[in-house]
Amino acid sequence: MKILVGIKRVVDYNVRIRVKPDGSGVDTDGVKMSINPFDEIALEEALRIKEAGKAEEVIVVSIGGDECQQQLRTGLAMGADRAIQIQTDQALQPLAAAKALLKIVQQEQPGLVLLGKQAIDDDNNQTGQMLAALWGRPQATFASQVVLEDGTATVTREVDAGLETIAVDLPAVVTSDLRLNEPRFVKLPEIMKAKRKPLDVQPLADLGIESGHQLSVTRHAPPAQRARGVMVESAAELVSELKNRGLL
Amino acid sequence: MSRTLIIAEHGGGRLNPATAKCVSCAADIGHPVDIAVFAETAADIAAEAAALTGVDKVLTIEDADFGQPLAAMIAPEAAAMAGDYSHVLGPSTTYGKDLMPRIAALLDVNQVSDIMQVTGSHRFQRPIYAGNAIVDVEAPEGAPVVATVRTASYAAAGNGGSAAVESRAAGAERPQHSRYLDLKSEGGDRPDLQTASRVVSGGRALGSADNFELVYRLADKLGAAVGASRAAVDAEYVANDLQVGQTGKIIAPDLYMAFGISGAIQHVTGIKDAGTIVAVNKDAEAPIFEIADIGLVGDLFQVIPELEAALDDG
CA-CA distances (angstroms) from residue A117 to A74, A174, A193, B59? Predict the structure, then answer.
């Protein structure tokens, strides 16, 4: 079985985001870029499944300009066997991203597609569900545990009410939550080795997808700030402050 | 066709309060509002939905396959109903986040995720980068708007309604590839974290699951729900359903009290809409103090018992 893992190049999660003064976007000049953390978890899971002998090949795929090859190389250094770049300078919205990924799914016929539950830039949380819908296959989102057996994935999902478990027939789309695993660190020899692993570039235009109705983002603004509050010195003072505000 | 359909969320035979918040968002869009209840037995849930102020009709679609919240089962049916609507809304809960994009894809549209404000029938504001930027988004006219509603941004609709309840037959084809197995819930008798007016949260500084008992005790004294930071959940002091923050629950209680929580941006995202934020932390430099309305630098192991004593003194 092949596993396809989608990874997105995003602003590193430690970077403090600044909105450009003209409201045209978020400042990404000279900012550290990384694999979306949820996607890194998805890749780690794929590698563990392969290491447990339940998959033969792990393929990483990313959509973007040539700069996303950096993240694909990191994915290869983590242990993926080969990489596919869907080359475009446009920022694709989730529906178009799902359609592009579906083309790769049709080429590669993976038994499992693993994605992060959301990208930490746009926070959309849509692509995995959309891919599953367009593919006509099951989805198991927000996974904190994945067990593969006899063509079925039994997935524990982090839901508002607790931990839900569902079983889905393969092939399926699984999206990772934070506690699925802790991704490995990449070692230097692996980085060297990754340079020789295959990276296939497919222009988005060649995939022939219709991006469909797009949302237009017209303005970026910084969020409203909370005013700085008061400091109290003791528990008793805290209680009286809460009483003064009518909260107790 | 300017009409809004809300997909109801429910559990244990009750309507989830997130649905009433979607009704408030739909009211801002301004079109007549219907609610669809997908369930095995819908009557009680539909009655709760029909009582919400501003709802025109409640549509029940009953089938054993809808007894559990499986997106792959519900999405085709909801997408088939969407032809009669300009807008289809669901809550930004794990239920809505799982289901709504599947509906959107079947309708060949992108979803507007996490509406925090309606500025026109097709114009919305939503957060990106964990709430560090807010964007104005415009959905195209002439295609259905599929969206999730950021529940912390809306008050629940009231209970002054008396909508008609209509039963609809399920018609769409349903897949056989997905099966619901079970739900493990810590639950208990405490108020629900997502709707409680008071929340007491603990972080990594609690140090152990046993010590977290302190947080529970104070919460019980205040009639508050209990929450936790990601660090406390990762350390297994408490279960995942108590996590507050970008990847946990985004909440807006009147009073939020954070004990031993440093205030990572991912946590702050989950509490920004709280009425009053109280922070108690040993580290005077902790970022939580930047957003706290009332801060106290101190050791939570001293402060919590002192608070309990002060509360007892009335």
Answer: 20, 8, 29, 31
Q: Does B11 touch chain A (CB under 8 A)?
A: yes
Q: A200 - beta bridge partners?
A: A84
Is position B293 within any domain? yes
pLDDT digits (tens, 9 = 90+) for A129-150: 999 999 999 999 999 999 999 9
Are B49 and B107 within one domain? Answer: yes
Region for residue A70 given its phi and psi (left: phi exceeds 0; alpha: psi -120 to 50; beta: otherwise): alpha
- CB-count burial class (<10 Å; 0-12, 13-18, 19+) for B114: buried
pLDDT of residue B313: 79
Residue B295 lies in a domain: yes
What structural domains and CATH numbers belong to chain A? 2-214 (3.40.50.620)
| Contact at CB, A124 and B113, closer than 8 angstroms | yes
Closest-CA residue of chain A to B116: A223
Residue B177 maps to a domain: no
Considering the domain architecture, whether residues B8 and B116 belong to the same structural domain is answered as yes
Residue appearing with tokens 């003791």:
A234
Q: Are residues B133 and B47 in the same domain?
A: yes
Nearest to A238 among B94, B105, B296 (CB): B296
Say if residues B102 and A129 touch (Cβ distance below 8 Å): yes
Q: For residue range A112-126, what is the model confidence (pLDDT) as tens digits?
A: 999 999 999 999 999
CA dist., res. B219 & res. B225, Å (int): 6
Q: Are A133 and B98 in contact (CB under 8 A)?
A: no
Which residues make beta-bridge pairs with A203? A87
Q: Per the CB < 8 Å rule, is A125 touching B108?
A: no
- A93-A96-A102 Cα angle (round to 5): 135
Query: Which residues 6+ apart lie within 8 Å of A78 measured at CB?
Result: A40, A43, A44, A47, A183, A184, A186, A190
Backbone angles phi, psi at B95, to 5 degrees: -65, -50
Q: Which of A17, A133, A238 sits opposite B106 (nearest CB)?
A: A133
Percent of chain B with pLDDT over 90: 92
Q: Which residues of chain A lie closer than 8 angstroms to B132, CB-CB?
A: 16-17, 19, 222-223
Chain A positions in Cβ-Cβ contact with residue B140 (cut-off 8 Å): 213-216
Question: Which residue has tokens 């026109």?
Answer: B120
